[in-house]
């Protein structure tokens, strides 16, 4: 195999320049004595050259040029759906809906049950503050000078129908919240977003600024797909790219995302031994990679808007975050997300509002496995949504709440009619059937290489991201979350990378 840089060994190679990898590239290269190479599968646009499709927060999905093209089986019906992931410097932070909600204390308490240490809400709060740049909220809880800009939408900024959604939710008994990244999340609020002047602020922009990219000890290598990690025994010594090039490194960090990092681990011999054996892969460490995978199931309750109230910009607007009747402890296990992230052509009036329900603390567990040893064959992703009875009941309850909000008198001035599931769906049996037929993903995949203590049978990495059974190899991205948090995980993924860099990689 030909080697990059004449077999020169760099200190750290980071695989993946997304929500975690861009953070690590910035923080680790801040030490001028440390040589860092960041390898990204997609293009590394200059800060001022990101195309409009990536800058526009109203564009979510349907961008094949910056997507890995993965698909997933959604449930036991065998139905296959796209599961988009960003393929560009900035990763999925460059293509998502730019929702900037922190995970809750209850989420971190659930992580602790898996034996992880250093990840209580009290311990990560300062990291959340350090990454954040906002004028919103209590300065004791919110950050003012970090690299990642977060702006709380106000009701005045919302479209008429989004404001009606907030009013209808209040009329249905939900508390009106000013700052969901503060002390209270149970209620309705406009979204906090990493959007400034209607430009999505991805990590490739704000962490890998032009100044950071000029550091002589940082190299960014784009449009390069990584096949596997190279080992000498059980010590990682570098990476092998799809075209067979070798890059040697003192430490390898996988930040290729929940799907990408899992695939690289398994192709490298780290994963379930029985699965690897089927593909002729020699086992380096027998670990349950891909066996604890989780995502949020998502159902779209869509309404057409009256012609005089069919404004659809800004697209991302407001959310109800609340408890189901079966919530356990302090968990907030339902989202009803109100947006205009829909093609206006679906509505005869040219305007639509989507009230989308998610079960945000699912019991169901999916799986991610290799289709073959060839990285170009993709992955076998099974979301396994609503496999557990409590998940099915809570999804039904969430859609019922969504429809009550949609039919509230506060919405009457803006709503023309219900598009999905439609006025003909009246009883629970029919509604459950439609939910199953139209179910989608919230695009929040996590936990294919989860952190855990010595007694956790699911653990792939320790509390600092070190892969068990090997040395000089870490995973730092959403794949190491012990379970999916109760909200969009992007800000928590950024926090996770910041926290490990601050506490374990100096």
Automatic annotation (TrEMBL):
Keywords: FAD, Flavoprotein
Cofactor: FAD
UniProt similarity note: Belongs to the GMC oxidoreductase family.
Entries under Gene3D superfamilies matching the protein: 3.30.410.40, FAD/NAD(P)-binding domain (3.50.50.60)
InterPro entries xref list: FAD/NAD-bd_sf, GMC_OxRdtase, GMC_OxRdtase_N, GMC_OxRtase_C
Glucose-methanol-choline oxidoreductase N-terminal domain mapped to chain residues: 86-109
SUPFAM superfamilies the record matches: FAD-linked reductases, C-terminal domain (SSF54373), FAD/NAD(P)-binding domain (SSF51905)
Protein name per Swiss-Prot or TrEMBL: GMC family oxidoreductase
Organism: Pseudonocardia yunnanensis
Lineage per the UniProt record: Bacteria, Bacillati, Actinomycetota, Actinomycetes, Pseudonocardiales
């Amino acid at each position: 195999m030909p080697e990059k840089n004449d077999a020169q060994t760099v200190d750290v190679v980071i695989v993946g320049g997304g929500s975690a990898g861009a953070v690590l590239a910035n923080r680790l290269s801040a030490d001028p004595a440390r040589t860092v190479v960041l390898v990204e599968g997609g293009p590394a646009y200059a800060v001022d050259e990101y195309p409009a499709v990536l800058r526009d927060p109203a564009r979510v999905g349907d961008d094949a040029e910056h997507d890995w093209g993965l698909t997933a089986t959604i449930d036991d019906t065998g139905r296959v759906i796209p599961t988009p992931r960003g393929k560009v410097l900035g990763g999925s932070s460059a293509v998502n809906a730019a929702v900037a909600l922190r995970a809750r204390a209850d989420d971190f308490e659930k992580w602790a049950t898996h034996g992880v240490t250093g990840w209580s809400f009290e311990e990560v709060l300062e990291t959340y503050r350090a990454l954040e740049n906002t004028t919103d909220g209590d300065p004791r809880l919110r950050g003012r000078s970090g690299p990642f800009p977060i702006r709380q939408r106000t009701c005045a900024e919302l479209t008429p129908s989004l404001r009606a959604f907030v009013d209808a939710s209040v009329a249905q008994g939900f508390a009106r919240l000013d700052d969901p990244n503060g002390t209270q999340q149970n209620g309705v609020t406009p979204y906090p977003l990493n959007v400034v002047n209607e430009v999505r602020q991805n990590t490739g922009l704000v962490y890998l600024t032009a100044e950071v990219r000029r550091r002589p000890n940082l190299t960014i290598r784009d449009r390069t797909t990584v096949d596997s990690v190279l080992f000498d025994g059980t010590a990682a010594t570098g990476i092998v790219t799809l075209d067979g090039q070798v890059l040697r490194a003192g430490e390898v960090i996988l930040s290729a995302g929940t799907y990408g990092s899992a695939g690289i681990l398994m192709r490298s011999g780290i994963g379930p031994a029985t699965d690897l054996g089927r593909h002729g892969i020699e086992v380096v460490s027998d670990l349950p990679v891909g066996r604890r995978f989780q995502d949020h199931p998502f159902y779209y309750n869509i309404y057409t808007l009256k012609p005089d109230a069919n404004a659809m910009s800004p697209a991302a607007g407001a959310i109800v975050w609340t408890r189901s009747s079966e919530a356990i402890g302090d968990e907030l296990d339902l989202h009803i997300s109100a947006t205009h992230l829909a093609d206006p052509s679906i509505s005869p009036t040219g305007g639509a509002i989507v009230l989308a329900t998610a079960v945000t603390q699912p019991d169901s567990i999916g799986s991610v496995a290799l289709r073959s040893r060839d990285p170009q064959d993709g992955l076998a992703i099974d979301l396994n949504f609503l496999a557990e009875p409590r998940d099915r009941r809570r999804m039904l309850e969430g859609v019922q709440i969504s429809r009550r909000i949609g039919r509230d008198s506060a919405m009457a001035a803006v709503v023309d009619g219900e598009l999905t599931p439609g006025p003909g769906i009246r009883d629970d049996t029919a509604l459950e059937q439609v939910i199953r037929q139209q179910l989608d993903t919230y695009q929040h995949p996590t936990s294919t290489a989860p952190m855990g203590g010595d007694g956790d049978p699911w653990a792939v990495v320790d509390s600092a991201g070190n892969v068990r059974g090997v040395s000089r190899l870490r995973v730092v991205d959403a794949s190491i979350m012990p379970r999916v948090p109760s909200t969009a995980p992007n800000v928590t993924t950024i926090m996770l990378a910041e926290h490990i860099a601050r506490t374990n990689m100096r």
